[in-house]
Amino acid sequence: MVESILSGDTPVFVDGVGKSIVISTRGWEQRSVAESTTEAVVRGPKEAFVETLRVNTSMLRRRIKNPNFVIESLKIGKYTKTDVAVAYIKDVAKDEVVEEVKKRLTKIDIDGIIDSGYLEEMIEDNPFSPFPQIEHSERPDKIAAELLEGRVAIISDGSPEVLVVPTIFVQFFQSAEDYYERYYISTLFRFLRLAAMLMSLTLPSIYVAAVTYHQEMIPSPLAISIAAQREGVPFTTLMEAFLMEFFFEILREAGIRLPMQVGQAVSIVGALVIGQAAVQAGLVSAATVIVVAITGIASFSIPAFNIAITFRLLRFAMLIVGGTLGFFGIIMALMMILAHLASLESFGVPYLSPLAPSNTRELNDVFIRIPWWAKILRPHKVAGRNVKRQNYTRG
Length: 395
Hints:
11 helices, alpha+beta, 46% helix
C-alpha cells in the first residue's frame, strides 16, 4: 500500500473490510511523443518512445490489437522500485525464452534502475564481449515488428529505449526503413551498409599494412604519390594513422557533447581546420587524412549506434595489428573476431544465425530483403510453434 501511495495511486479504505482498493491516479510531467533523434527514416512512422512506461506500452497496444499480446509488469530496484514490463505475443514467442527473460530480471538485486542500459548489462549472456547481444530501439514500429517475429521486449520506466531479445548480429545492420521501401532498394542499402562496416573496421589497417609492408600491392603511380606526400612526415605510418583516428574520435565526441547548434559546427570546422593545417605543417600526409575521413563517414552509415561503437573500438586494435604484422595480422585478427562472434549466443539463439549454423531458408532477410508477399515464415530460431506469418502467395 505504501508503494502504491509513493507511486501516485490513491487507496480507498472501507470500514470493516480488511483490504483496500487502489485507484490509479498517477500523474506527472512528461515529454510529449516526438520524432526519433537516433533512428531517423525518410519513409515510415516518425513517433518515438518516451520516458513514461504506460505511454510506451500504449503505443505498442495501438499497433498489436490481439488478446495474445501480453505485457507483464514487475518492479526492480530496492529504492527506485522501477516499473519494468516484459512484452511478447503468447502464441508466437518461445515459452522458454520468455521464462528465461523473466528469470534473469527477477534475479536482479540492485538499489535502483535509472535506464534500460542497467538491465542490458545485467541480463546479457556474455558481459565481457565487446559486441552487444541485446538490441535496443526507440521506435515503436520497429519493436512491434520484432514482437511479430517472436521476440520479447523489455520496457523500463524512465527510459525511451526498449530492449529486444533474442538478438542476432545481422539485426544491427537492418533499418526499419528497409521494410517500408521497395525490396530491391532496401537490398542495395544493405549491401552498402555491409561494405561500410568492413571499411569502418579494416580500411585504416589495410592502408597502414600496404604502405608499410606490402608496397608491391599498390599501383606504381599511387605508391609514388603516397611516398611523395610522406616525405618530411616525422611519424611512421602506424603512428600517423593512430593519431589521426584518435583526434577524429575526440572531435566526434566533442560534437556530441556540445549543444546541437554548436556541436555540428565544431565537428566540421575542427576536422577541416586541423586536417588541412596538419597536412600543410607536414605532420601527416593527405592520403592518411582521406583514409581516416572515409572511415569515419562509413561508420556513420551503420544504423545501430551500439554496434558502431564496437567497430570504432576494434578499429584501433586492427590498426595496431596491421601496422606490426601486415596483412597476415589483419587476416588473423578477422578470424579471431569471427570465431568470437560464432561462440556468442543471445538467450539460446546463435549470434551469427542464420549464417552459422547455416539455414538457407532464412537467408532471404540477411543480405537481401525479399518482397513482403514472399515472407511466408517467421525466423525459425526465434519464433515458437507459430512460424507461419501469412497465407498469401503471389500469382
